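Consider this record:
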Amino acid sequence: TIFQLRRSINASLNAINSDPTTAGWFTNYVLYPFDSGLNRADWYPVVDSTNPNDIVNAIGNIQINAFPGSAPCSTQCPRPIYGVLADLLNRTSFAMPNSVILVITRSSPEDYLTLNQLSSTLQSAKVYLNFAYTNIDSPCGMGWNGNDALSLFRAVSYNSGNVFTVCACVCVCVCVSNLC
């Protein structure tokens, strides 16, 4: 849940930034919360900062067990993941190369057919793209053999990233930290 992310993000960032072997690795932080493409106008704002506490505070402002805006929750599971990544990679605040992108979600990409247009940007940006699938067996519970799920593995192959399945977090957001 977002509750679990709230509980652990501050301690995680403090540990990374205070450990002598990792201190200074991350200098810029971008939080890009997203939801269904149908309610894009209601998404939480993107937060760009050099201060990790701004990211912690922004995560604290995301409602638990709720969706942005006043419209009812979308029944569609897929989300515009590649569109969000394209927007993120085009932000002037996003430092490249060597940035780490962590997409935390339970959804498959509804826009998986656009990955080919994004592939050259992912390669030239030299970012480390990682997907963390939370508390599920597969994206949207549809298995790993569909073209949408398989596109995740293609996306991370362009930049030495990974696809992980983990438990205890169900938010839909993109957390980004940039390396020096």
Notes: The longest helix spans residues 2-18.
